[in-house]
C-alpha cells in the first residue's frame, strides 16, 4: 500500500476504518503446566526444608532473569512501572505474575513464622504479612486473567485453582471467616 492509500493515520487508521482488527492474541494458546512447575520450583529452592527466605530470594532472582530475557524493563535508574503487555508471543510472560505471587506469598509466610518465633508478638509483622498475602492474591488474579486470554483450558483451570488457593489462604490469615 502506498502512503496515499493509507491516508494520514498510517496503517493503524486504515485498520480502524475499513479492515478488521484482531481482538484476541496472535498465537496459539499456550500450554503451561502451572501447578507442576510451581511444585518443582518450591521443592528445589528451599520449601522442602521450610526455608521461605531462600525461596523468596530464588523468586526474586527468577523475576530478574525473566525481565532481562524478555526485555521487559522498568526504566533506567529509578523504577517506573510499565504496564503488562496485552499481546505477547513468548510463554515466559506467564511466569512473571506467577513468580511475583510466589515471592509475595513466601515473604508473608516468612513474616508469619518470624512473628510466631519472637517472644513478644508484634502486630505490625502480622499486618505486614497479611499485606503480602493480599499482594500475592493480586498477582494470582492477574495471572488468572492473562491465562484466560493467552492459555489453553487446562492452564486456565490451574490458574483459577491457584488464585482460589491463595485467596483462601489470605482470607484465613485475615480471619475473614465468612468469605473464606
TrEMBL record:
Gene3D superfamilies: Signal recognition particle, SRP68 subunit, RNA-binding domain. Residues 1-26 are annotated as: Disordered. PANTHER family: SIGNAL RECOGNITION PARTICLE 68 KDA PROTEIN (PTHR12860), SIGNAL RECOGNITION PARTICLE SUBUNIT SRP68 (PTHR12860:SF0). The keyword Cytoplasm applies. This is Signal recognition particle subunit SRP68. Keywords: Cytoplasm, Nucleus, Ribonucleoprotein, RNA-binding, Signal recognition particle. It holds the Pfam family SRP68. GO terms for cellular component: nucleolus; signal recognition particle, endoplasmic reticulum targeting. It comes from Strombidinopsis acuminata. Belongs to the SRP68 family. It is found in: Cytoplasm; Nucleus, Nucleolus. InterPro entries: SRP68, SRP68-RBD, SRP68_N_sf. GO terms for biological process: SRP-dependent cotranslational protein targeting to membrane. GO terms for molecular function: 7S RNA binding; endoplasmic reticulum signal peptide binding; signal recognition particle binding.
Amino acid at each position: 500500500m502506498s502512503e496515499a492509500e493509507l491516508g494520514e493515520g498510517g496503517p493503524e487508521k486504515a485498520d480502524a476504518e475499513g479492515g478488521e482488527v484482531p481482538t484476541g492474541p496472535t498465537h496459539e494458546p499456550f500450554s503451561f503446566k502451572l501447578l507442576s512447575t510451581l511444585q518443582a520450583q518450591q521443592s528445589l529452592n528451599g520449601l522442602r526444608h521450610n526455608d521461605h527466605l531462600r525461596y523468596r530470594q530464588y523468586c526474586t532472582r527468577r523475576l530478574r532473569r525473566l525481565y532481562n530475557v524478555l526485555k521487559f524493563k522498568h526504566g533506567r535508574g529509578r523504577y517506573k512501572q510499565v504496564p503488562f503487555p496485552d499481546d505477547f508471543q513468548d510463554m515466559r510472560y506467564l511466569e512473571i505474575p506467577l513468580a511475583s505471587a510466589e515471592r509475595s506469598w513466601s515473604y508473608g509466610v516468612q513474616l508469619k513464622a518470624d512473628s510466631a518465633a519472637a517472644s513478644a508478638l508484634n502486630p505490625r509483622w502480622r499486618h505486614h504479612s497479611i499485606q503480602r498475602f493480599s499482594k500475592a492474591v493480586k498477582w494470582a488474579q492477574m495471572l488468572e486473567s492473562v491465562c484466560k486470554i493467552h492459555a489453553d483450558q487446562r492452564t486456565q483451570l490451574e490458574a483459577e485453582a491457584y488464585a482460589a488457593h491463595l485467596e483462601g489462604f489470605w482470607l484465613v490469615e485475615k480471619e475473614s471467616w465468612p468469605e473464606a
